[in-house]
Specification:
The chain has a two-stranded antiparallel sheet with strand order 1-2. It has 177 residues and is an all-alpha fold. The chain has 5 helices and 2 strands. β1 and β2 form a beta hairpin. It binds a DNA duplex (11 and 10 nucleotides) through α3.
Length: 177
Amino acid sequence: MTWTDERVELLKKLWIDGLSASQIASELGGVTRNAVIGKVHRLSLSGRAKPAAAPTARARKPAVATSRTASPARGAPAQRPLVAGNNALKPVAETAPEPRRLSRPESAPVVVPISLHATILTLTEQTCKWPIGDPSTEGFHFCGQRSGSGIPYCEYHSRIAYQPVHDRRRDRKVAAG
DNA sequence: CCCTGATTCGC
DNA sequence: GCGAATCAGG
């Protein structure tokens, strides 16, 4: 994939909006989060909502003299946080509404996962995307429990989502008889 | 483990 | 310029 103007613009938008690199990567498609981060740095967009970032010495240090650390001339001390007006777009932590439980499982031996109040900003490929609440209201969020790799829901919500039909046969013994 | 961003450097 | 590999941290 190439960084077309459109993709760069979308990258900028999403980054400023506060999405993580991995989420932006999946949104764009065809790139990894590393690519996104690399691009973000090249665009000098890095320090988003960090007003006073302490210069934590995070310079990569060679553990045992690897072949990668060969050019000390690369060390660029110039590190300026050129963000100033992003506060308006900074995601504000909304007052968390009381976490709601889902409708009581009839007889599931599984513990109902308490909602982690995952938002669209915290969902990843491995977090349960079971919607909780009304998407049109403020308290809407997602389950957020860990789900299996590639599985959109946690164990509990997978049972609901993929409820087998044959389970319903049990009801018919009365209705049909 | 899962995740986050930061950095380096071969390509 | 690009991004995988790597690092450092939560």
